[in-house]
Design brief:
Elements (H helix, E strand, L loop, with lengths): L2 H26 L5 E8 L10 E6 L5 E5 L5 E7 L2 E8 L5 E9 L4 E3 L2 E2 L8 E5 L12 E6 H6 L48 E4 L2 E2 L18 E9 L12 E6 L7 E10 L7 H5 L7 E15 L3 E14 L14
Parallel strand pairs: 1-7, 1-8, 6-9, 11-14
Antiparallel strand pairs: 1-4, 2-3, 2-5, 5-6, 10-13, 11-12, 13-14, 15-16, 16-17
């Protein structure tokens, strides 16, 4: 086989691989989305069919609508994560509005509308509150919002995976391989006593796992690009297959109708680091260490309320010297 033919064959095989990788990923990536369910009732508690329900994304103005069924129930599936306003209308009743309903990946948000008799020009506005008890889904999960990812302390490499230490049933996360394998220093942990290799991580629906080191992820999303991290640790749904310990879903940010950007820089050196116990005892001077993490993000509308963009860059520079301390038997030990 000639080099040209081999090259064409490799390109064709890679194309097919990408196609096959993308297609089932979209079908199996239900954890990318959330759901909104609820009922429409009148003042006496009777269910109301035929009411129009609209949900509107507060960032992008995306509007989805449906109608309550014969039992007064409604369902929105495959809803992109974000904050939504829910509006319910029906002739002869006041308009019902519930604001700032959070939709997260893999979750079900319930909004039950209680309608009052009146004119459509009148409205009842309710501000959404976080439900204390989940009644629509039986999984055990923890979620971290973009604000929590940014506000909670992260280790030197600013890896969001360190937040898994806060999930009930987890062991302290640690880096266990060379940086040449995982340059972003992916962390691994055990969940509920299971093997660390049984954890499954997806980023925007795509499987993110190192084939030869399945306890590590191939890609660690920069903290500034993360919109949400959802960690399921029990009673997995069918769309979270391949997970035995934890099913970790990472959703990255998208553009909105507002032009928004950020820049960041983090720096540490030997003067900002503590000296180890043994180095102090042996009066070993601090070795030179320099570590920079710099980058930025930018997102906004391409076509307002229709098409958006979001991009990010993160670069790391690290220069460090190593030391080794050997202990030999003392005279008494001999």
């Amino acid at each position: 086989m000639t080099l040209a033919r081999l090259h064409r064959w490799n390109v064709a095989a890679l194309t097919l691989l990408v196609l096959f990788e993308i297609t089932p990923g979209r079908a199996a990536a239900q954890e990318l989305y959330g759901s909104v369910v609820g009922t429409v009732q009148d003042g006496s508690g009777a269910r109301i069919p035929g009411a129009t329900i609209e949900i509107t994304n507060r960032e992008t103005n995306l509007v989805l609508s449906t109608v309550s069924n014969d039992t007064g129930a409604y369902t929105f599936t495959n809803v992109l994560p974000g904050t939504y306003d829910v509006k319910v209308t029906l002739q002869g009743f006041k308009e019902f509005v519930q604001q700032q309903v959070p939709i997260t990946a893999g979750s079900i948000s319930r909004v039950d509308a209680k309608m009052e008799v009146g004119q459509l020009s009148e409205s009842i506005t309710v501000r959404s509150e976080v439900a204390l008890l989940k009644t629509d889904k039986a999984d055990t999960a923890s979620a971290f919002s973009a604000k929590e990812v940014m506000d909670l302390p992260l280790p030197e490499f600013r890896n969001y995976q360190s937040l898994l230490d806060l999930v009930p049933g987890s062991t302290p996360s640690e880096f266990q391989n060379a940086e040449i394998d995982t340059p972003a220093r992916a962390l691994s942990t055990n969940i509920n006593g299971t093997n660390r290799n049984t954890n499954s991580t997806r980023v925007d629906g795509a499987t993110n796992q190192f084939t030869w080191l399945p306890h590590h992820t191939l890609y660690v999303a920069p903290a500034e690009t993360i919109a949400e991290v959802n960690v399921s640790t029990g009673s997995f749904s069918a769309d979270q297959g391949l997970a035995g310990g934890a099913a970790v879903t990472v959703i990255t940010k998208s553009g909105t109708n507002q032009l928004r950007g950020s820049g960041f820089g983090y720096y540490t050196n030997q003067d900002l680091r503590a000296q180890s116990f043994f180095a102090k005892r042996n009066k070993t001077p601090k070795l030179p260490t320099n570590h920079h993490i710099d980058g930025g993000t930018l997102g906004g509308p391409v076509v307002k309320s229709k098409l958006f963009y979001f991009g990010a860059f993160e670069g790391q520079y690290r220069n460090t010297a190593g030391e080794s301390i050997y202990t030999v038997p003392t005279e008494k030990m001999r």
